[in-house]
Each structure stands twice: as C-alpha cells, then as structure tokens.
Design goal:
mainly alpha; Excitatory amino acid transporter
Length: 81
Amino acid sequence: MAWSTTMIGALLGLGTQMYSNALRKLPYMRHPWEHVVGMGLGVVFVNQLVKWDAQLAEDLDKMLEKAKAANERRYFDEDDE
C-alpha cells in the first residue's frame, strides 16, 4: 500500500508540474528541480491523505459504537422503569 501511494503521489506532483509548464507553453523539463519538488509534495500530500482517511474511518467506527451503546441504553435498558 505504501509503495503504490508513494508512486501515485509522485506521479501527481510530476503531472502537475508538467501540466503547469504546458499551460504556459514552456518546455516540459524547463527546471528539473521543480519536478523533484513537485513529486516530493505530491508524495507527502497523498500519504497524508491516506493517513487521514484511515483515521477518519477509525473515528467513525468509535462514534458509531458510542451511538449504538447510547441507543441500547436508552431503548433497551429496563432498569429505570
């Protein structure tokens, strides 16, 4: 998973930089260091996005468990009546 995420991020950064150069009608590899920076930023962005998605799913599961427990206490707890 980490390898594919890293490659997707690198391709995203490289593609963004090349697209930017194409829009401005510049040579694709005008400043190669900009491509390296773009690839690095793309890698960081996609890896953080995957991490955020995993944390979001974990938090959602916790919230659903709390809501389920609260509903069970509210509707199925016969001790109060």
